[in-house]
Amino acid sequence: MSKISWKEYKTGNVYDEYVDPTQNLRSTNKKISEFIAKYTKRKLLKIAKSSEDLISSRGITFRVYDESKPLEQFWPLDIIPRIIQKKEWSGISKGLVQRIRALNLFIDDVYNKQNIFKEKIIDKELILKSGNFRKKCVGISPPYKVWANICGTDLIRNTDGEMLVLEDNLRVPSGVSYMLENRVVMKSVFPEIFQKKKISPVDEYCSKLYSCMKSLSKNKDPNLAILTPGVYNSAYFEHVYLAQQMGVELLEGTDLFVENDKVFMKKINKKEQLHVLYRRINDSFLDPKVFNKNSLIGIPGIFNAWKKGNIAILNAPGSGIADDKVIYSFVPKMIKFYLDEDPLINQVETFLCYDKKQRDFVINNISKLVVKPANESGGYGIVIGPNSSKKKLDECIKNIKKNPRNYVAQPLISLSTSPTNIDGKLEPRHVDLRPFILSGANNYVTQGGLTRVALKKGSMIVNSSQGGGSKDTWVINN
Fold it and tell me: Which residues are 167's β-sheet partners?
């Protein structure tokens, strides 16, 4: 059987991670490209099958919901890696740290001095009327003034090859366990590449997260735990994985109780105080005494325990005010206001539908734009103008007019493509990237992150919940 041929790999009118516009291999990826070209199609299929078998044996799964019923699926990993040069990643990492510093200062400012409103940089009503603003958090400032200790920022590469921030995920970002497991699988199926190439490791993430959690407690030997909503959550695999890797308790709300504004774990014949909690449930379900009184998965009284400093919670309640696609548009101004710096990494131009002039522009050009709900995640609710019917666009316009604060629009940016194994043949598929940033006593950025890939030809929806897959991301010195 013939070997893989890069001459057969045809890209479109976008930036491709491996091949330049003249259809020549990029010099930065040439060594890896040449290594892949040594394989036959049959061998590539065999390697792909080995990776699938390993994923199955390790139980690497995720959940999707079909007609409200959870379906367990094995994690989709494409074996062709995404390559990023170390020099480029160094600059991106600095930009991400700068960005999350500004976002955390913004959240702390909103709940305390509100200087950004006094200087009229952001309309106060935009925040106070946000569904993620928590009035009960006013006057509180967590350790190091850090509210979002764990952030998953989505990056895309535009047609010029520039990496841009698409959005920030500051509430309950997921996917890091899949980044770590992707690396384990790739090391197993491509051991010879890892022996020859210096690929930056990612396996230090769990120890960094553990240190981040410990840094938030005044206790010298704090008890740490992860709070999960339970086995039916789509990210339950990740909850279990992180708890096992860090050697901390994985708990549900019923495993905890509050006494004298302190949080305790239920143990056989005893109780044990908990000092740091990494919660994987949304604010509204965290404490039925403060937020949603019907919540059955939260811990009554935990908010007051947090407010009094008796427990640290990652991410802090109220951090969602910055996890909003409307607020996203103001981040460059936040960086200038709080840090007196220019952004080190740019973001996508965003039109705000609450502003009449911008709303009119969006409505008049909706067939050319991407419209997004301000607070949805997972790719839900997105309307891609050029790919939508007139009926769908008319419905979108109706929704914008009904609730303009809840919608933003962006130009349609063709995500970069990366070669992907499709039945033993390399074909371009659109990708994005989610690195993870930890903030506590120190900052940490993963080496690369979770590359998500739209497995359907021509699609730009990379979310696993909607049929997307993933790639291992290799940060290397050429």
Answer: 154
Tell me the β-bridge partners of 352: 408
363 exposure class (CB count in 10 Å sphere: 0-12, 13-18, 19+): middle
Contact criterion met (CB below 8 Å) for 430 and 15: no
Q: What percent of the chain has pLDDT over 70?
A: 97
Q: Collapse the DSSP code of 181 into the 3-class scheme (helix H, G, I; strand E, B; otherwise coil) and give the result.
A: helix
pLDDT digits (tens, 9 = 90+) for 152-205: 999 999 999 999 999 999 988 999 999 999 999 999 999 989 988 889 999 999
Q: What phi and psi, each to the nearest 5 degrees, are found at residue 372?
A: -130, 140
β-bridge partners, 227: 251, 279
Q: How far apart are CA 147 and CA 151, in angstroms?
A: 10
Measure the CA–CA gap between 446 and 203, rounded to whole angstroms.
9
Q: Residue 463 and residue 470: Cα distance in Å, rounded?
A: 9
CB 154 within 8 A of CB 382: no
Which residues have a Cβ under 8 Å from the Cβ of 330 and sit 6 or more positions away? Answer: 121, 122
Residues 436/205, Cβ–Cβ less than 8 Å: yes
- Going through 49-94 in order, the beta strands assigned E by DSSP cover 61-66, 69-74, 77-85
Label residues 137-146 b or e (16+ Cβ within 10 Å = b). Answer: beebebeeeb
Q: Which of 403, 407, 410 is nearest to 385 (CA)?
A: 410
**Terminal CA-CA length for the chain:** 30
Closest-CA residue to 142 (of 97, 112, 162): 112
Neighbour tally for 294: CB within 10 Å = 9
Q: Measuring CA to CA, which residue among 348, 293, 318 is closest to residue 142?
A: 318
Decide: helix, strand or coil at residue 216. Answer: coil
Q: What is the pLDDT of residues 335-355, one digit of tens each?
A: 999 999 999 999 999 999 999
Cα 33 from Cα 391, distance rounded (Å): 44
427, 428, 430, 432 alpha-carbon torsion, rounded to 10°? 100
Provide the token pair at 424.
């033993």
pLDDT bucket at 378, cuts 50 / 70 / 90: low
Is the pLDDT reported for residue 68 higher than 90?
no
DSSP 109-174: HHTTT-HHHHTTSS-HHHHHTSTT--GGGTT---GGG-S-SEEEEEEEE-TTS-EEEEEEE-SS--
Helices 236-246 & 176-189 angle (0-180, nearest 10): 80
**Quick check: pTM over 0.85?**
yes
